[in-house]
Amino acid sequence: MYIYTGSLQKNDRRRHNKKSRSSSMAIAASFSSSSLRLLHHTLFPKYPFLSRNSQFRPPLQVFSFRFSPRIRASSAVAIEQDTNSLQQDTSEVDLFACPICYEPLIRKGPPGFNLPAIYRSGFKCKICNKSYSSKNVYVDLTVTAGMKDYTEYKPVRTELFRSPLVSFLYERGWRQNFNLSGFPGPDEEFIMAQEYFKAAAGGILVDVSCGSGLFSRKFSKSETYSRVIALDFSENMLRQCYDFIKNDYTILNNNLALVRADVSRLPFSSGSVDAVHAGAALHCWPSPSNAVAEINRILRSGGVFVGTTFLRVRSSTPAIMMPFRQRIRQTYNNLTEEEIEDLCTSCGLINYTSKVQQSFIMFSAQKP
């Protein structure tokens, strides 16, 4: 009996080929799945591999290219925020300037205008490339700051107040003796000065030759001014000033800074200050004319300068007392009423006025 086997062989081959293809697909699928799983774990170790049979279907848009612009947008925001914060930091410093070229200093340090922030900051002039650093409690912004070999001395009347002993005694008996010469006393003098400074309320006040900070602290506590700078050439006076401030929590974090500087080379940009106070100071300055000219430079238009000092002689001083008054000039640079007025007006200030009591004078003048 003849049996045709061609059809059966074809069927067997088809079944065999189908089984081979199924096995190959299974192997390929298995290989593909394991390869993908391995690749996924390599790239995304924190996230589990989800098979195609999983019920969880993350939205396709997660992997869309829209994600990249979002990164750029958030980065731009971060950069913009950093730029703004940098501008805020540097804007705090625009007030301080290099005492050599008067270019505003670049500040590096914590933001804010208070004692802890200022004395933890460093300052640098981008023109002179000179750096100015803090001395634990104050910022040294003198021309000689950082010099290693060069030493500069001031007249005896200036060097006297750099003494640690005089700095310690200044508010412990020294200043109290001023009432013998007609000084009304710190409280009354402060009230008188505040009357002159009414036009400068809310502005920046610099207390030059501040000594131990007797009036700087009063100005800061009054909260009349946006910033108060206690400035003196004496390192020990500034240290003494800090000792008083650190024990007074009411002003420790106020907008107050301690700066060492020369009154004849004030470290401020021109026209940046609203008020300048100089209590019992003018007679100690090496060059009152240079100092008043500097004060005029840093004052804004309408800014006010108020000072107190000892008079040498008055028009009403008896002639017999003249020789004794003249001897005082050998130690201190005491001036007459007329000389002080001439000094202020010759340096460009206007609206001069004064109050006199014995040898005490409080005078005020304004920048046009």
Automatic annotation (TrEMBL):
Keywords, in A-Z order: Chloroplast, Methyltransferase, Plastid, Transferase, Transit peptide
Alphabetized CDD domains for the sequence: AdoMet_MTases (cd02440)
Family: Belongs to the methyltransferase superfamily.
Entry GO terms, CC: plastoglobule
Protein biosynthesis listed as a keyword: no
Keyword Chloroplast attributed: yes
Main location: plastid
Localization: Plastid, Chloroplast, Plastoglobule
Region Disordered, residue ranges: 1-24
Methyltransferase type domain span: 206-306
SUPFAM superfamilies in UniProt: S-adenosyl-L-methionine-dependent methyltransferases
PANTHER family noted in UniProt: METHYLTRANSFERASE, OS06G0646000 PROTEIN
GO biological process: alkaloid metabolic process; methylation
One GO molecular-function entry: S-adenosylmethionine-dependent methyltransferase activity
Compositional bias of kind Basic residues: 12-21
Name this polypeptide is given: Methyltransferase type 11 domain-containing protein
Xref: InterPro entries: Methyltransf_11, SAM-dependent_MTases_sf
Pfam families: Methyltransf_11
